[in-house]
Design a protein that fits this description.
heterohexamer; A alpha/beta; B alpha/beta; C alpha/beta; A: alpha/beta; Hypothetical Protein Ychn, Chain: A; C: alpha/beta; 5 helices
Chain lengths: 96, 142, 130, 96, 142, 130
């Protein structure tokens, strides 16, 4: 199982398409930096193929005022949770 | 919150109705297309706007694409203490930068409403965006 | 016509600097006046005096200097953007208690007022971005 | 009349949507750097709203091996042509 | 040209048929998502691949998105004499980097065919991309 | 576990450096070993010794140094990426006939072989990118 991080908003960049193609059946996706915009209810649909396996970094949501606007089906984790995801995953693959 | 949101929306409609090409004229239009924290472009664009205003120039801001998130209420510092841009946004009025245009299509794409934003804005259509490009002497994109 | 260039991209990392230098050379060759190049955002990295690119690649900083020497083009670097990125001239280095310096003439540290001024006094301001 | 330059491929970035919104009826669009990918027949359809007003920079097409693959309805100009476009336009607006 | 294109396509089909997960195993997978000239990322990714190969590691390359344009035939220098990456690509074989995967969806999106490319490649589906992510010990994205 | 970090983003321009430093601090706080941070692409700018950010903002270079001093984290900078961007230590400066230098210990100029090695000897390699 691999962890994928994505730091671009799907409203900006098409790199999320590459991320989704590279994600195996039990891989997980962590949205960080500007990528946390993907947790907005209007944008989370881009990730419906991997629903239930989408995480967003709490500190990055908070800094942007987006924590309260986050979709319900996104798991919010802090930086310690980020580290735990990297512990559990065989590899972490970065998309930007 | 929803009451305040409503008041803001009403206020915004009035502004939008008053909005004519003449109102939009100015020396500098700064286009902001990036949110806070992810890159320094938002801050650097705002810095240019503030400096121009301090030198007595008439400045308008146009938020496009994900730049609209720059105005979302309740932004904080970054986890290492990075300042963010909320403090700078709060200074705009003091510098007489009062024309804040936001791209209507982007607001819809992001699912944002005027009441989610911390400052009063004018939502603009493509035609109004095109008008702003010609009624300002200088346009800078960040 | 009188032109100004605003350069926002770092050298070597992105094409912006190459595009800007190519445009600048073609401008003066066509008889236009290039008033100034203003370096802002990652564009300030173009002024790093110690840049040592491989010999088979264009030396961008020397290219900017030649434009200054041969055509009087001013090379203005945003001071706020430069300081946080480690680009200091001798004056700023001593002001910040640092030994050594990383930018030198003809690159000049200046404020954003110069950029606004440039944009308004030129017939055309062209931005090259990362 | 304004000139707009775009240095991102529409296959990568959605910034072309902002560019198109900002283009007035007689504005012109010049594709430069990675933006010249937009001149490929498969991608030029993103610019159909401004057909006939799309230019691509020859030197950037050549460096990428794309000059021969360029769509017919894109005007190819070299850097002198770029300068002429900026002379004719009131302003040049940069999208990236 | 079309004859040569056909030969290449046939050759490629044979390679694709021989393609198994075992063939794809390796120490390092370098994912290249940027074309030449626009940024330095393509070159920097290729440099990492060459160094790893020089140290005896088994290296595969995966071109995704607009990175597929990195392989287009007939690339030249930049107008200021920037080297580009064609010379580096020509060195891959010498370094025993022979597994060049390209994202099939991106090739279609860009309208590119294998015969437009300067090196023989294997077009891969999402399932094959996912397999490559797990059969290499290290994955680096550029 | 043993971790390595690959940092590709310039400080202040993009969040990558902030994200990497935050992750690095949390790693060591959790008891993991952070072997090295490898600076590549625009990440090499993190090593600029003259960086003078405003006092009310995080000083990223000091943050990297503290990780080295307190936790023995190696700070490796890709030499090829650094030279063309104007980041030279004293040895390289004299080799290239330049006066002055722009990076110093604990940042070390090294080759890409170190990056490959780091990736293969660590349990996890995490990349932070612009």
């Amino acid at each position: 199982m691999n962890l994928h991080t994505l730091n671009r908003s799907p409203a900006d960049s098409r790199v999320y398409q590459q991320t989704l193609q590279a994600m195996g059946h039990d891989d997980q996706l962590l949205l960080i930096e500007d990528g946390v915009q993907g947790a907005l209810p209007q944008l989370v649909r881009y990730f419906e193929d991997v629903e239930g396996r989408v995480y967003a970094l709490k500190e990055d949501l908070e800094a942007r005022g987006l924590l309260g606007l986050c979709a319900d089906n996104v798991h919010v984790v802090d930086v310690d949770g980020f580290i735990e995801l990297t512990e559990q995953a065989d590899k972490t693959i970065t998309w930007y | 919150m929803s009451k305040r949101g409503f008041a803001k929306e009403a206020e915004e409609e009035v502004r939008a109705m008053n909005d004519t090409q003449t109102d939009l004229q100015g020396d500098l239009l700064v286009i902001l297309r990036h949110g806070p924290h992810g890159s320094s472009l938002l801050r650097e664009g705002l810095d240019m706007a503030l400096v121009a205003a301090a030198f007595g120039r008439r400045v308008s801001l146009l938020f496009m694409g994900t730049g609209c998130t720059a105005l979302v209420s309740g932004q904080g510092q970054g986890p290492l203490g990075q300042k963010g841009t909320q403090a700078t946004l709060n200074m705009l009025e003091m510098y007489d930068i009062e024309t804040l245009l936001v791209e209507s299509e982007a607001m819809h794409a992001l699912g944002l409403k005027a009441c989610d934003l911390s400052l009063p804005v004018i939502e603009v259509s493509p035609a109004q965006i095109q008008a702003a490009m010609t009624t300002h002497r200088l346009v800078a994109t960040f | 016509m009188r032109y100004g260039i605003l350069l926002l991209g770092a050298p070597y990392s992105r094409q912006a600097s190459h595009s800007a230098l190519r445009f600048a050379r073609a401008l003066v060759a066509k008889g236009h006046i290039l008033d100034s190049v203003f370096f802002y955002h990652d564009g300030v990295y173009n002024a790093a005096r110690l840049a040592a690119p491989p010999q088979d690649e264009p030396h961008l900083m020397d290219g900017w200097k030649a434009l200054h020497d041969e055509h009087g083009v001013k090379l203005d670097v945003c001071i706020a953007a430069a300081l946080r990125r480690g680009l200091l001239n001798e004056t700023e280095a001593s002001r910040h208690g640092k030994e050594g310096y990383s930018i030198e003439a003809p690159f000049a540290l200046t404020g954003l007022g110069q950029l606004v001024d440039l944009g308004l006094r030129c017939d055309r301001l062209i931005t090259f971005a990362p």
